[in-house]
Specification:
Strand order of the largest sheet: 2-1-5-6
Number of strands: 6
Distance between the termini: 19 Å
Order of helices and strands: HHEEEEEEH
Structural class: alpha+beta
Shape: globular
Strand content: 25-35%
Oligomer: single chain
Length: 96
């Protein structure tokens, strides 16, 4: 991912995300697989866990905090534009 500018006070952390995803317990993995994050502008929902475009291994994409993450969504149907659950900002903060 590339950004032309960065947020002041922010930092970038790198972690082996495939190992993190594959190391999750059954319940946590099921939850992570069902989550999307809604971007700060509220226009795009990205899956939290997805196959890497080159390796096909499970990986994650997310931004921690406002203004990048407006909320987490569970049970998203992109065709209908609906979600089973929308986590409000305090609930989203608990998930970060």
């Amino acid at each position: 991912m590339h950004f032309w500018a960065v947020s002041e006070g922010g930092s970038t952390l790198f972690s082996p995300l495939n190992e993190l995803v594959e190391g999750l317990g059954k319940e946590e993995r099921s939850l992570f697989d069902s989550l999307y994050f809604l971007t700060g502008n509220g226009k795009v929902a990205h899956p939290l866990v997805y196959p890497h475009p080159v390796t096909g291994k499970s990986t994650m994409v997310f931004h921690c905090g406002e203004p990048f993450v407006r909320a987490f969504l569970k049970g998203v149907d992109l065709n209908k534009g609906t979600a089973e659950k929308v986590y409000d900002w305090p609930q989203t903060l608990q998930m970060l």
